[in-house]
Amino acid sequence: MSGPDDERRVDLADFDDGPPVLPDITDDERGSSWGEREEDDIARLLEDRPPHWG
Q1: Residue ranges under compositional bias (Basic and acidic residues) (predicted)?
Q2: 35/21 Cα distance (integer angstroms)
Q3: CA 33 remoteness from chain centre
Q4: Would the pLDDT of 1 be above 60?
Q5: Residue 17 and residue 26: Cα distance in Å, rounded?
Q6: Distance (Å, rounded) from C-alpha 50 to C-alpha 14?
Q7: Cβ(31)–Cβ(38) under 8 Å?
Q8: How confident is the model at residue 9, as a pLDDT?
Q9: pLDDT of residue 52
Q10: Backbone angles phi, psi at 6, to 5 degrees
Q11: Which among 30, 47, 46 has a CA at the least distance from the CA of 38?
Q12: pLDDT by residue (tens digit) across 2-53?
């Protein structure tokens, strides 16, 4: 009979991590999926600023 599972040794080197099961960010969370450009366009953001922001 073997000992408790807490004392059992498992060699993690045998496991291949492979690709992630779930991505960190899904496609619908990316700006490109909503028609936004990928580059950081500060000038466009300042131009789109509402007038009451001064």
Answers
A1: 1-12, 42-54
A2: 27
A3: 15
A4: no
A5: 20
A6: 57
A7: yes
A8: 80
A9: 87
A10: -65, -25
A11: 30
A12: 667 778 787 777 777 777 778 788 888 877 777 777 677 788 788 888 888 8
**Tokens 């073997």, located at residue:** 2
Question: Position of tokens 């408790």?
Answer: 4
- Per the document, the length of the chain is 54
d(CA 32, CA 40): 12
Gap between the Cα atoms of 46 and 37, Å rounded: 15
Q: What DSSP character marks residue 45?
A: H
Tokens representing 23?
Answer: 């991505």
Tokens 């291949």, located at residue: 16
CA 51, CA 1: separation in Å to the nearest integer? 77
